[in-house]
UniProtKB/TrEMBL annotation:
It is found in: Secreted. Keywords: Glycoprotein, Secreted, Signal. It comes from Cisticola juncidis. Residues 1-20 form the signal peptide. The keyword Secreted applies. One of its GO terms (cellular component) is extracellular region. InterPro entries: PA_dom_sf (IPR046450), PA_domain (IPR003137), PRADC1-like_PA (IPR037323). Residues 62-146 form the PA domain. Pfam families: PA. Coiled coil: none annotated. PANTHER family: PROTEASE-ASSOCIATED DOMAIN-CONTAINING PROTEIN (PTHR22702), PROTEASE-ASSOCIATED DOMAIN-CONTAINING PROTEIN 1 (PTHR22702:SF1). Its main location: secreted. This is Protease-associated domain-containing protein 1. Plays a role in the modulation of physical activity and adiposity.
Length: 185
């Protein structure tokens, strides 16, 4: 691996004692369309609820939920069926959002921070006190990344992005990784 990747790995393992962010705690996905955000994004799985990705989706829709916080009935629930939902943080618990997407037939949920300027701080998504469960994977996405994806879809008048998830970044040379220019890796 390149020097930048080695430095990143060292920072994750050595500078976070106790928590020890390890490489397997990140999940990567790539936006395939629209082209102006054709980058590899980093997300973190929920800590203690939700499923895991047992399948690799080469091309699946990433559908922004309507309303964005997905705390109740969705106006575009029919488009979430068998796809992945992009949801915004706030209004209810992470688990509640995940259950709403699961009830609409979504395969997974990506919950973006509602702080649109957040380009580096990952929130640890934990189960609420309701003792409910969720079976679909739930991932946390930086606010800046979620904002840029939604903004691109709005600019192009598109109802969803096409993504590939999960992406194995260990097989991609560092110089070939298409990283969002607004995010420090």
């Amino acid at each position: 691996p390149g020097a930048a990747m080695l430095l990143w790995l060292w920072l994750c393992v050595c500078c976070c004692p106790g928590h020890g962010l390890r490489i397997h705690e990140y999940l990567y996905f790539q936006v395939l369309s629209p082209g102006d955000i054709r980058y590899i994004f980093t997300a973190t799985p929920a800590k203690d609820f939700g499923g895991v990705f047992n399948t690799r989706y080469e091309q699946i829709h990433l559908v922004p939920a309507d309303p964005p916080e997905a705390c109740g009935e969705l106006n575009n629930g029919v488009f979430i069926q068998d796809q992945i939902a992009l949801v915004e943080r706030g209004g209810c618990s992470f688990l509640s959002k995940t259950r709403v997407i699961q009830e609409h037939g979504g395969r997974a949920v990506i919950i973006a921070d509602n702080a649109y300027d957040n380009d580096s701080f990952y929130i640890e998504m934990i189960q609420d006190s309701s003792r409910r469960t969720a079976d679909i994977p739930a991932l946390f996405l930086l606010g800046r990344d979620g904002y840029m994806i939604r903004r691109s879809l709005e600019q192009h008048g598109l109802p969803w992005a096409v993504i590939s998830i999960p992406v194995n970044v260990t097989s991609i040379p560092t110089y070939e990784m298409m990283q969002p220019p607004w995010t420090f890796w």
